[in-house]
Amino acid sequence: MLSENYRSTENIVRLISNFISLDRSFQNVRVSKKPSLRHARTGDSENYPILGMFRDDIETLAKDLSKFIYKVVNGGYPIDYNGRRCMIAIDRSKGGSPADLCVLCSSPQETRGNNNMRLPGLL
């Protein structure tokens, strides 16, 4: 069934499902009575928190996201989470690598049909 997601963690499936339901313009193009996305992954997996970054324009988003990724890969990025200071970093001592990072965007394409850059191309 296409509504069953076996790849993503439960946190990601829940975020996407909630986000989609908030976007009224998306609801107009969504197939009516389409089943909700359901987490179907089996086995043990780490349910890491999800971070979202939103900016007014794609160029600023790409610039800020690139800086964030650079800091995460090269020592860490401090955040306040549930009232405590945490560091978002790749733990290389446990086999972590920059390849463990995942950026979710609406398309993997680097350019649009009119050759305007998309987020993956700007990154």
Q: Taking strands numbered 1, 2, ... along the chain, how are they ordered across the largest sheet?
A: 1-2
Give helix % range: 25-40%
H-E order:
EHHEHEEH
Q: What about the largest sheet?
A: 2 strands, parallel
Rg value: 17 Å
The shape, in one word, is globular
Alpha-carbon distance between the termini?
A: 33 Å
How many helices does DSSP assign? 4
pLDDT averaged over residues: 83
Number of DSSP E strands? 4
How much of the residues is beta strand, in percent?
Answer: 5-15%
- Label the structural class: alpha+beta
Question: Poorly predicted ranges (pLDDT <50, ≥5 residues)?
Answer: none
Explain the overall architecture:
- There is one protein chain.
- This protein has about 120 residues and is of the alpha+beta class.
- Strands 1-2 form a two-stranded parallel sheet. A two-stranded antiparallel ribbon has the order 3-4.
- Strand 3 and strand 4 form a beta hairpin.
Topology:
Layout: E1 4-5, H1 10-22, H2 24-29, E2 38-39, H3 58-73, E3 77-81, E4 84-88, H4 119-122
Parallel strand pairs: 1-2
Antiparallel strand pairs: 3-4
Which structural traits does this protein have?
4 helices; 32% helix; alpha+beta; two-stranded parallel sheet; 11% strand; 123 residues; globular; two-stranded antiparallel ribbon
In short:
The chain has 123 residues and is α+β, with helices and mostly antiparallel strands. The strands form two sheets. Strands 1-2 form a two-stranded parallel sheet. A two-stranded antiparallel sheet has the order 3-4.
